[in-house]
Design a protein that fits this description.
It contains five helices and eleven strands. The chain is α+β, with helices and mostly antiparallel strands. Strands 1, 4, 7, 8, 9, 10 and 11 form a seven-stranded mixed beta sheet that branches. A two-stranded antiparallel sheet has the order 2-3. Helix 3 packs across helix 4 and helix 3 packs across helix 5. The protein binds oxidized coenzyme A.
Amino acid sequence: LLPWPKVDFAKFGPIERKELGRIKKISGANLMRNAVMIPAVTNHDDADITELEAFRVQLNKEHEKSGIKVTMLAFLIKACVAALKKFPEFNSSLDGDALIVKHYWHIGFAADTPNGLVVPVIKHADQKGILQISQEMAELAKKAREGKLGPADMSGATFTISSLGGIGGRYFTPIINAPEVAILGVCKSQMEPKWDGKQFVPRLMLPLSLTWDHRVIDGAAAARFNAYLGQILADFRRVLL
Ligand code: CAO
């Protein structure tokens, strides 16, 4: 590789030097390794969340007094657990020539903080309901913003979700959080015209971007994972099948 270009920027205009914070230094080294060492591919898809969003709004009305805010991310965590159970290689890690398939489902979620990106983990997400997950997520996100997350809060994830849904954008290509083998990126849902066979109808569509490690997963499995995730998000009764 060529050496990193060294430029005397001050020659071209005024500059300011700012040292990177602790989180940026640690996450930067991890992101660099993961981006360079994993043969990663991203599949994009959309999920129809029209009914799910209406249900979420209704739940928030019902639980107004409890102080719990039900988030779309909590539903995404449950939907991902269902998809990870159906496609277990997505809930694994590589160990040399072997695959360690995990029979526990701990879901990390990327949280933006003033000091940088951190990934708190919802442990045993398969055993928790939407209300509990929403509440835990709010607590972990608060701890993250206050810089109070401990190592136990950020370890053990088997799969990660990075949601930019509250901010915007259409699709992006998230970097896998090694030693995990896949990550789901989520962007902002939008009303779109969808053909129902007779006419265009307005549906709320959620953009999904699944990045996966090609040493473990192939394109067909990734497309199936996204399609299944879309089916669950469109109608959660399908997790019962
Ligand atoms: N589509 C449309 N709107 C969405 C949405 C989606 N997919 N997801 C959330 N929203 C809306 C919510 O409805 C909410 O709106 P109201 O304030 O009107 O109720 C608002 O966005 C905020 O959402 P939220 O409180 O539910 O928060 P969240 O669950 O989306 O996110 C957290 C929580 C911690 C993930 C978020 O604060 C965060 O840090 N996101 C950034 C993650 C990140 O940086 N990822 C990139 C990593 S790679 O660099």
